[in-house]
Amino acid sequence: MPIEDDSDFEEECEVHQQISLQRGPALGEEQPADEDEQFDLDDLLPSIGEFGKYQKLLVFGICLPACIPCGFCAFNQLFMSDTPEDYWCKIPELLNTTSVEQRKLLALPPDMDHNTGEHSKCYRYAVNWSQLLENANISDLKPNDSWPIEKCQQGWEYNTTEVWSSIVIDYDLVCDKDIYPTIGLAALNVGGPIGVYLFGLLNDRAGRRTSYFTCLATLLLGSLITSISTDFWTWAGSRVIVGLTIPAVYQIPFIISLELVGENYRSFVTVMTCTFYTSAIMLLSVITYLERDWVKLSYYTSVPFYLYFLYLFIMPESPRWLLMRGRLEEALKILENMARINGHEFPPAIKTKLEAQISRNKLKEKKKQANVGVSDLCRTPNMRLKTILITLSWFANETVYLGLSYYGPSLGSNQYVSFFLSAVVEIPSYLVCWFLMDCWGRRWPLSLSMILGGVACVITVMIPDDAVDETLILYLVSKALLSASFLIIYPFAGELYPTQVRGIGIGVSSYVGGLGLIVIPFVTYLGKENLKLPLVIMGFMSMLGGLTGLRLPETLHHRLPQTIEEGEEFGKEWTMNDCCTCKPEVKASSQPASYENLDVLASNTGSEVELEMKSSSASSSRRSRRPKSIIDERTPLDVNRSSRSMKRLVRQMSVMDTQRTHDGTMQLTHWI
Question: Are the beta carbons of 120 and 143 closer than 8 angstroms?
């Protein structure tokens, strides 16, 4: 029986042929090598193990232990620069003839600046003690208010009951020089942003292994110079060197771990990293309690990490970085070894594809990528507003968090216990925050934790000065809340920035946030005169950052923006009702969690859909007359083809990655 409307049927066949050419070969046909398609490691991990024995050894054997030197060297300086509670001018002529109390009574005028009735710590009577001792017996001498007063000229004596060794004692960093320890702390934080940039370049150009061991050597060199310093400025310079490696010394193995575990486990690795970092701070408080000599403390918190050079024999290079650099033979060996240790067989098809790609890469140049820069973050109004709000919130969050960490030893009756407790409260806050992010979204948990944490700081001003324990409790509440917000700000910012500029956006926001760490030591320095003033300042800063975050759009249960254009549209229709919505609702068209297409759709996707629509309308009246081969063309195979063009959809459940380049390679970020 002849087929009616042959011309229409031929047209329909032609349309389907065009679709087939765009989609690729049918099931069972050999797939042509796509020379422009880069190998996606995330597609391979489910086949060889997303969190198998190999990844567990890497995470628990290398990544998490790498948090310890970072935690030690970021905060051991607080105890190296301890200031004794009491000190006074040294009078060499009286050292061998009088007791401590006699010297204080005879040689020191009363403290007129604070009207406390105690002796002055920075002034002494300007008299000739040798001459006075020649003319009278020491027991007959009495202080005279008419004697002239001068600043301490020959150093200080210190009460070493609690603090008997510190740079303050060795270098006489009191009175006019009491700000020097604060300058040293700022010097440590100056190195951070510089180090992230320098080691970031090395990380991308020379590889993770080279960057990590260079970073570790730099840390140990700076710590060694710290230990042997004989003057303050040498010591401060050594702290800049140490600061270059913080947080890079733990972020590099952290990045390797994130690149080798499946997407569903990256949240776990991130939370575990934060927990180990906090545990390192808790361990540091124990070490500083047991060892009060600042030189030995410097050795104890650095020398054991020379053992980390043994990682040279076991730490792998990042396969993702090797693939990005075109060193596919080395990446293949690591991936095959991972599959073997995890008890999986390496997929032959992937191996064949990799080998073919190795051959192609030897004959072709790298495909040029579209250039994007910082200016793209501020080119359009909505993206500009979100960039400013994210950066302000990040600045307030990171600055206040570290400021509270620095201020812990100043509160309570025992600085070691206070510092220990300030670290302990972080761990439950991480676990609670991890749960809340998936139930209540990002915006409200971030903003509420910052606002309530700021309120807890501010209301300390209403507590009497002698209410030491109450002030410490409010401080710990604030620290726990800020720790929770500190964990949220990173993934929240990553979800708000479009994929196309995500690495640049996170880099800019975190870098500006890192600059706040240079200023915050001078805020905590104000506590020498008024213990609660730094808490009030940090409280208002935290509340401002929390209020800023309320204007940002929620990302939970939303498809995340891929391009700059989508980023401009995302949250553009924000209203006050959106702000007042505490718990984001699951949209009817979405699944229980949001999904993000990690790869921007290929340019031919739109034309493919258009051709399908054209084909559908042309064939609606003739479906019964088509041959069975054409009738059956729309089968589950099309779903498979569609998934190939769409790549992978990734669940958004608290995906806490570090910043990436356009090809998925992860980079360093100033986030500690």
Answer: no
Helix axes 502-525, 180-205, angle to 10 degrees: 170
Residue at token pair 């002055």: 120
The mean per-residue pLDDT over the stretch 612-627 comes to 41
| Pick from 474, 510, 524: nearest CA to 77 | 524
Measured in residues, the chain has a length of 672
Nearest CA among 401, 526, 537, 411 for reference residue 472? 411
Q: Does residue 26 register a pLDDT over 50?
A: no
The DSSP call for residue 558 is S
How far is residue 468's CA from residue 471's CA, in Å, rounded to a whole number? 5
Do 39-85+170-362 and 374-577 share a fold?
Answer: yes
pTM: 0.77
The model's pLDDT over 316-344, given as tens digits with 9 standing for 90+, comes to 888 888 877 778 888 888 988 999 999 99
> Six-digit token pair at 406?
């620095």
Percent of the chain, pLDDT > 70?
A: 77
Using a 10 angstrom Cβ sphere, with 0-12 exposed, 13-18 middle and 19 or more buried, the burial of residue 373 is exposed
- Location of structure tokens 């929620």: 554
E strand or H helix at 87: strand 87-89
CATH topology of domain 374-577: Growth Hormone; Chain: A; (1.20.1250)
221 and 237 Cβ atoms separated by less than 8 Å? no
Question: DSSP class of residue 326?
Answer: T
Segment 452-487, tens digit of pLDDT? 999 999 999 898 888 889 999 999 999 999 999 988
Round to whole Å and give the CA distance between 129 and 90: 12
The number of beta carbons lying within 10 Å of the beta carbon of residue 470 is 12
Element (H, E) at 88: strand 87-89
CATH no., domain 39-85+170-362: 1.20.1250.20
Long-range contacts of 101-110 (CB under 8 A, 24+ apart): 102/138, 103/157, 105/143, 106/141, 106/142, 106/143, 107/143, 109/143, 109/145, 109/147, 109/149
Residue 424 Cα distances to 35, 282, 362, angstroms: 52, 7, 53
How far apart (Å, rounded) are the C-alpha atoms in residues 131 and 127?
9
Beta partners for residue 158, in sequence order: 87
Please tell me the distance from the alpha carbon of residue 76 to that of residue 71, in angstroms, as a whole number.
8
Crossing angle between the packed helical segments 468-496 and 502-525, to the nearest 10 degrees: 160
**Nearest C-alpha neighbor of 500 from the set 408, 582, 598, 584:** 598
Burial class (CB in 10 A: 0-12, 13-18, 19+), 427: middle
What are the domain boundaries of the chain?
Answer: 39-85+170-362, 87-158, 374-577
Asked if the peptide bond before residue 247 counts as cis, ω within 30 degrees of 0, the response is yes
The residue among 185, 195, 190, 253 whose CA lies nearest residue 405 is: 185
Q: How far apart are CA 31 and CA 23, in angstroms?
A: 11
Whose CA is closest to 70, among 285, 244, 312? 244
Q: What is the DSSP string of 203-214?
A: HHHT-HHHHHHH
Count of Cβ atoms closer than 10 Å to residue 488 Cβ: 26
**Strand, coil or helix: 571:** coil
**Residue 91 CB partners (closer than 8 Å, separation 6+):** 103, 107, 124, 129, 154
Other Cβ atoms less than 10 A from the Cβ of 568: the count is 18
